[in-house]
């Protein structure tokens, strides 16, 4: 594989992962709002999403995703309606993709 092809392939992977991060974060924010969970986390996630959209730096957004995942897992243990396995799995997948 040439350097140009490798760079092109790498760029496509990163774009897919970042789009997924933004989409999953936005869905998590909507779920937090709908269920009225952790207003501070809602504000932080909203701010980090806006920041990410402006500068494409995912660090703060990943931190919010980690906090959201912890909260969602706690709420699933309490049998909170609306916290689906898909929501938890999507957050976990985004975090796994970051580490890959």
Write the layout of secondary structure elements.
Elements: H1 3-35, H2 39-55, H3 59-77, H4 85-99
Helix content: over 70%
Strand content: under 5%
Order of helices and strands: HHHH
The count of domains is 1
Largest sheet: none
Low-confidence spans: 1-15
How would you describe the overall organization of this protein?
The structure is a single chain. By secondary structure, the protein is mainly α. It has one domain. Helix content is 84%, strand content 0%. It is built from four helices and no strands. α1 crosses α3 and α3 runs antiparallel to α4. The radius of gyration is 15 Å and the shape is globular. The N terminus is likely disordered.
Provide a quick synopsis of the model.
The chain has 100 residues and is mainly α. The protein has one domain (3-99).
Task: Please give a handful of descriptors for the protein shown.
globular; mainly alpha; 100 residues; single chain
